[in-house]
Amino acid sequence: MSSDQNDRTDKPSVLGPAAGFGVTFKAMFKKRLTEQYPEQKKPTAPRFHGRHQLNRHPDGLEKCVGCELCAWACPADAIYVEGADNREDERYSPGERYGAVYQINYARCILCGLCIEACPTRALTMTNEYELADSSRQDLIFTKDQLLVGLSEGMVDSPHSIFPGADEGAYYRGEITAAAPGTVQQESTDRDKEAQQ
Q1: Residue 143, pLDDT score
Q2: First to last CA, the chain
Q3: What is the DSSP string of 61-111?
Q4: Minimal CA–CA distance to 57: which of 87, 95, 113?
Q5: Is domain 52-165 classified as CATH 1.10.443.10?
């Protein structure tokens, strides 16, 4: 280092505070950007990570197979999944298993999207919904009923039978586009009560 540079760094400058206040004065006269939230909501980016949703097949059966990979991938331990076996008289997904209990705790979730990447069936995706604040921690635990996407035209609510003549692979290849004609919702039973009897 030369002696000229030492002289500049060792001696305090009288103009130092004025330069600092200059930045402050410039900021005072800049145009302010104020968003009138919540009256005027700013649209989110297309790939925004918001609230999760559990998707369905085109006939209404759930895509979730209860594999619990999303819960394993979650770094915040915010997802709880309990898988159960499908039965012919009570079928929720085309595979042999389904997610019987599905919960996401938004008091813990960091909306990172690792659970979405881990899902092998694209059952779990993220929406653009970001208003998740609540006054109760209990209300921040979303259950399967709150996360499951609604029914569209041509869907029958699960449980119901699989499309006649189709196998699990036909669902994942996209060959099933609607519920089979005459498909009706099966009677749902509470398996916990059934197991106790």
Answers
A1: 96
A2: 86
A3: -BS-----HHHHH-TT--EEEEEEE-BTTB-SSSSSEEEEEEEEETTT---
A4: 95
A5: no
